[in-house]
Design brief:
Elements: E1 5-9, E2 15-23, E3 26-33, H1 36-51, H2 72-84, E4 92-94, E5 98-102, E6 108-112, H3 116-120, E7 124-127, E8 130-135, E9 138-141, E10 158-160, E11 173-175, E12 182-187, E13 190-198, E14 202-208, H4 211-227, H5 244-253
Antiparallel strand pairs: 1-2, 2-3, 4-5, 5-6, 7-8, 8-9, 10-11, 12-13, 13-14
Length: about 260
């Protein structure tokens, strides 16, 4: 019997070795390994990590040099436990006013402390270029938690103020266009909001003084096109800060381009 190593069998009958470690009364699984030697090495590394004083032996940057004895995720989890005294199931490392979620060795995502509870309970995943979490059976993009729509484009609809697209702290995100079909532009030195809708090309619905008016104009144009027979499921804007009565009043009064009626002819 090797300390911290337990032999198991996979469904196909192949032997597997699980490593675990107890730290301050907490039992921590270190993962499964194809060999007994690999599992024991993981156990010894965990012991070395957790018994060594903070900052004196093995840090986040030492993972590759140490020969990758554990998964990178587990390496981060154990170092945070050692240095900050808190065990998370996700690869989070705490700093004074923020934390870093180590998706892998290359991608390190910064978040404000306010998001700690959420990301300590939600695993970040990646599909293509998009980072997301599974929440109530749905794929929720990281940017959507800031009110950024799924169709939004970085640089046009929002930006990372310091240029670091891995820094999701609230003060680093600036949102330009919060609503579907709405973009901001300067016309004769004044900021206006342009509302456009796509029907075999982009059609200008109108230009409006406020973002909310442009968003409601988009809704009105989408309703009109659907009524005229355009079979497209347009996203409707939910306008923040307005009561139902206020939004309804603007909807009735807002003018949209009469050219939209020609689209279906």
């Amino acid at each position: 019997m090797v300390a911290g190593v337990y032999e198991t069998t996979k469904k196909d009958g192949t032997p597997s070795y699980r490593a675990s470690f107890t730290y301050k009364g907490k039992h921590i699984s270190l993962g499964s390994f194809p060999t007994k030697e690999g599992a024991h090495r993981a156990y010894l590394t965990a012991e070395l990590l957790l018994r060594s004083p903070e900052g004196t032996l093995l840090s986040l940057s030492d993972y590759s040099a140490a020969g990758r004895p554990l998964s990178y995720e587990k390496w981060v989890i154990l170092l945070n436990l050692r240095d900050n005294g808190i065990y998370f199931k996700t690869p989070i490392y705490l700093y004074r006013r923020y934390f870093v979620y180590h998706y892998n060795e290359e991608i390190h995502l910064k978040f404000d402390a306010d998001d700690l509870f959420y990301y300590s309970n939600h695993k970040i995943m990646k599909r293509g270029r998009h980072l997301f979490v599974a929440d109530y059976g749905m794929q929720v993009t990281l940017t959507s938690r800031y009110g950024i729509k799924a169709h939004a484009v970085e640089g046009r609809d929002y930006r990372f103020i310091n240029g670091d697209s891995t820094d999701f702290r609230y003060g680093n995100l600036e949102i330009f266009n919060r609503y579907a079909g709405v973009t901001a532009e300067y016309k004769k030195g004044q900021l206006v909001y342009v509302s456009k809708i796509h029907v075999n090309g982009d059609y200008i619905i109108g230009r409006y003084a406020s973002e909310e008016e442009a968003a409601i104009a988009y809704n009105k144009a989408a309703d009109l096109l659907n009524k005229l027979g355009i079979q497209k499921n347009y996203t409707r804007n939910y306008v923040e800060g307005l009561t139902e009565e206020e939004a309804s009043s603007i909807y009735k009064k807002i003018r949209i381009s009469p050219k939209l009626k020609l689209v279906v002819k």
